[in-house]
Write a structure and sequence with these properties.
single chain, 39% strand, alpha+beta, Lipoxygenase-1
Length: 215
C-alpha cells in the first residue's frame, strides 16, 4: 500500500510541475506579446507625416500611390509596410468601395483615396508618385496629392495636382528631404520614376524621361 501511495504522490508532483511549467510559459508568451503590442503602439503614435492621394469619386480609375524613402524602400499596394512607411489601403476605384454589413445591407465608401504615413524620421530624400494602374474612364484624371506634417502641430506643407491620361502613366507629386530633426529642408517636383515603368512622360511639363525597370 505504501508503495502505491508513493507512486501516486510522485505522479501528483510531476503533474503539478508540468502544470506550473505551462503556466510560466504562458505568462512569458503573454508578456512578450504585450511588449510587442506596446512597441507597435509607440511606433504608430509617432506618425510624423501623412500623404493623401485623392481623385474624384465619380471616376472609376485605379490610381496607385508610391513612396520611396532615403534607404531605397518603396511602399505601394504590394508592399504596404516598408521601413517606417505605411499604406492604409489599395483603392481600386469602384470595385472595393462597397461592403456588405452584418444585417445584409451594403455600405458604399464615396471617395477615391489612399493615405501614406511616415511613422518615424529617417534623414534624406523621400519621393511620392502617383501611378495610373488602370485607366477606365475617357476623361483625364486629376489627382490631388497633399503632404501634411503632424508634429508638433498639423501643418500642410504641399499640395500638388497632377493629371494622368492613360494606364501605366506615372508622375512625381513631390520629392522632399528631411534632416535628423524631421524638418523639411528641401521640396521639389523633379520627376523620378519608382513604379518600375520603362518609359513615361511628365504631362505637367511635357518633358520625357526614362524609367528604370524593377529587378
Amino acid at each position: 500500500m505504501s508503495r502505491n501511495y508513493s507512486d501516486t504522490m510522485v505522479f501528483v508532483d510531476l503533474s503539478l510541475n508540468v502544470l506550473v511549467g505551462f503556466i510560466i510559459l504562458f505568462a512569458l508568451a503573454f508578456l512578450s506579446m504585450q511588449q510587442k503590442h506596446q512597441q507597435e503602439a509607440k511606433i504608430q503614435s509617432k506618425a510624423e507625416f501623412v500623404i493623401t492621394v485623392e481623385w474624384p469619386y465619380q471616376i472609376n480609375d485605379d490610381v496607385d500611390s508610391y513612396m520611396e524613402d532615403p534607404a531605397g524602400n518603396i511602399c505601394f499596394f504590394n508592399r504596404r509596410e516598408e521601413g517606417l512607411m505605411h499604406l492604409d489601403r489599395d483603392d481600386l476605384g469602384y470595385s472595393n468601395d462597397t461592403f456588405k454589413l452584418a444585417d445584409g445591407t451594403t455600405y458604399e465608401v464615396k471617395e477615391n483615396k489612399e493615405i501614406l504615413t511616415i511613422r518615424g524620421i529617417i534623414p534624406g530624400e523621400y519621393t511620392v508618385n502617383a501611378h495610373m494602374f488602370s485607366k477606365r474612364s475617357k476623361n483625364v484624371t486629376e489627382v490631388t496629392v497633399k503632404l501634411d506634417k503632424l508634429n508638433p502641430q498639423v501643418r500642410t506643407l504641399a499640395i500638388k495636382k497632377i493629371k494622368l491620361h492613360k494606364s501605366g502613366e506615372e508622375q512625381t507629386a513631390f520629392r522632399f528631404s528631411l534632416n535628423a530633426k524631421g524638418e523639411v529642408i528641401d521640396l521639389n517636383h523633379i520627376p523620378k520614376a519608382i513604379a518600375g515603368l520603362k518609359y513615361g512622360r511628365n504631362t505637367s511639363t511635357g518633358e520625357e524621361y526614362d524609367y528604370e525597370e524593377e529587378p
